[in-house]
């Protein structure tokens, strides 16, 4: 899909239309709001489309190149010499796209009015740390009811030797970066299909810090961070399912020189249940019943999420018939609505007959014999 289709607009859309369409979609698919498994991917897609179409220069290049050429160039990074473009492009796509994906926090604050994310200064030009994904294993019950879990994972944290400064010597002053003169940003000229444009990018020499460490710390090579083992406590909402993700802000890798940490994404892996099978918010349970129970009806005890419950099996219940117990399924994530518990009737034939049963079944056969026989009807 091209970027216009992703945003649900046409090529003639105005800047205002592009923006409003993006905002509408981003709100719908923001990972903080939408817990569908593919929402995050969709959100990234929307954000990428908007990054390009909202920037007149990028939009111009995109319109000129066409979607597939542009995407191909983007994937090849534009950085290399030729890549099939005869060296015409010397644009570094990472600079153009800020690493391919804009900080979701900015979008979040823009969309939802900001606030609540203190300590994440927008003016901070230093790159924040990377996001991390960790698999969070849950039992069936933990997924259904929500749980407090301690996630344990490897991540970059502040270097303990230099306390995040990156410097081996407490007293040594950092020197001002010679390339950006302490600004953290430099202007870069790029040409794109002949169109030249200037761009402000993060200074490659100091990574936006504006300063250079004089005497780098040996433990962290002057980066101010080291890989370590972290644990984070999370409260998972009720109703999560396999493959769903939860974002834990600021618990990913810390950035270099103590700059903001990325986010941690817990990806849920849920254990199977002994009896219940789950499909979305509905639960399924196989319930074995006998021939007399099926024919005459009965009241049986079945397990539910809230303990055992008596359920009436109506007279004449057939094999594979389903009995729905409304609102006894799983609560949907971020919603009050609940699925159902569906009983799958599993009619069991007796494997062995006692002498008395043998007698009764024989008697039954005689009683219902000739005129009512199904076979007789079929072949009459
Ligand atoms: Zn260090
Ligand atoms: Zn610099």
From TrEMBL:
Record GO terms (molecular function): ATP binding; heat shock protein binding; oxidoreductase activity; unfolded protein binding; zinc ion binding
UniProt binding sites for Zn(2+) 1: 159, 162, 217, 220
Gene Ontology BP terms: DNA replication; protein refolding; response to heat
Transmembrane segment boundaries: none
Cofactor binding mode and count: Binds 2 Zn(2+) ions per monomer.
CXXCXGXG motif repeat positions: 159-166, 177-184, 203-210, 217-224
All residue ranges annotated as the J domain in the record: 2-66
CDD domains the UniProt entry points to: DnaJ, DnaJ_C, DnaJ_zf
SMART domains the record matches: DnaJ (SM00271)
Cellular localisation: Cytoplasm
Cofactor requirements of the protein: Zn(2+)
Pfam families from the UniProt entry: DnaJ (PF00226), DnaJ_C (PF01556), DnaJ_CXXCXGXG (PF00684)
GO CC entries: cytoplasm
PANTHER family linked to this entry: CHAPERONE PROTEIN DNAJ A6, CHLOROPLASTIC, DNAJ HOMOLOG 1, MITOCHONDRIAL-RELATED
Known partners and oligomeric status: Homodimer.
Membership in a protein family: Belongs to the DnaJ family.
Domain remark text: The J domain is necessary and sufficient to stimulate DnaK ATPase activity. Zinc center 1 plays an important role in the autonomous, DnaK-independent chaperone activity of DnaJ. Zinc center 2 is essential for interaction with DnaK and for DnaJ activity.
Protein known as: Chaperone protein DnaJ
UniProt organism field: candidate division WWE3 bacterium
């Amino acid at each position: 899909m091209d970027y216009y289709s992703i945003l649900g607009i046409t090529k003639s859309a105005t800047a205002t239309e592009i923006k409003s369409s993006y905002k509408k979609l981003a709100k719908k698919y923001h990972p903080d709001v939408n817990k569908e498994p593919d929402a995050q991917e969709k959100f990234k897609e929307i954000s990428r489309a908007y990054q390009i179409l909202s920037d007149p220069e990028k939009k111009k290049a995109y319109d000129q190149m066409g979607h597939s050429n542009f995407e191909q160039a983007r994937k090849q990074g534009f950085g290399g010499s030729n890549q099939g473009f005869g060296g015409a492009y010397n644009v570094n796509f990472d600079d153009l796209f800020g690493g391919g994906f804009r900080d979701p926090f900015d979008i979040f604050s823009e969309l939802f009015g900001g606030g609540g994310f203190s300590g994440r200064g927008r003016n901070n030009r230093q790159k924040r740390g990377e996001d991390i994904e960790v698999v969070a294993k849950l039992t069936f019950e933990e997924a259904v009811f929500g749980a407090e879990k301690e996630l344990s994972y490897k991540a970059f944290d502040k270097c303990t030797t230099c306390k995040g400064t990156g410097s081996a010597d407490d007293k040594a002053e950092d020197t001002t970066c010679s390339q950006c003169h302490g600004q953290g940003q430099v202007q870069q000229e790029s040409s794109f299909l002949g169109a030249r444009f200037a761009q402000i990018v993060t200074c490659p020499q100091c990574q936006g810090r504006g300063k250079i460490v004089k005497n780098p710390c040996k433990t962290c090579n002057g980066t101010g961070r080291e890989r370590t083992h972290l644990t984070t406590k999370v409260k998972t909402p009720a109703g999560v399912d396999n493959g769903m993700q939860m974002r834990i802000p600021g618990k990913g890798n810390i950035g270099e020189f103590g700059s903001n940490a990325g986010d941690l994404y817990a990806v849920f892996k849920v254990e199977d249940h002994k009896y219940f099978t789950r499909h979305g918010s509905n639960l399924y349970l196989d319930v074995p019943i006998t021939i007399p129970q099926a024919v005459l009806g009965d009241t049986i005890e079945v397990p539910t999420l809230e303990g055992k419950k008596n359920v009436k099996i109506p007279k004449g219940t057939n094999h594979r018939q389903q009995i729905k117990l409304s609102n006894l399924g799983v609560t949907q994530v971020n919603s009050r609505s609940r699925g159902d518990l569906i009983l799958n009737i599993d009619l069991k034939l007796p494997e062995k007959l006692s002498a008395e049963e043998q007698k009764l079944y024989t008697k039954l056969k005689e009683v219902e014999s000739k005129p009512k026989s199904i076979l007789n009807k079929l072949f009459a």
